[in-house]
Amino acid sequence: MEIKVKVWIEDENKNLIFGSGKTEILRQIEETGSISEAAKKVGMNYKKAWSHIKILEEYIEDDLVIAKKGRGEDSGTKLTSKAKELISLYKTLDEDIKNYSKQRFKELFLDKELIKTKENIDV
Q1: Global pTM?
Q2: Which among 39, 61, 86, 106 is least surrounded, fewest beta carbons within 10 Å?
Q3: Cβ atoms of residues 78 and 33 within 8 Å
């Protein structure tokens, strides 16, 4: 048995600002160098992916991607340092919350044997 936790950030009106989906889009942009390729990899259309980026940019008041058209070596889409920082900070927050939740679940339920697991059931 294990606990599952999903972490996201909302504004004061409960609008989703940032979470695992937007993090994954940014990660895929970094990997592929393309918003359309990133959108395909996460199963989303280009317009929705671009909308996610724009919403996030609005809230942080900074650019997250730099798109350069053309066919040269430096063409394509790159993440700004702010986007890379957001990915890193979200990953840290997500891991910290999940680790704490697992430990606390163990302390409150499993250590007290309120919930029986395969390991503590006599067969």
Answers
A1: 0.82
A2: 61
A3: yes
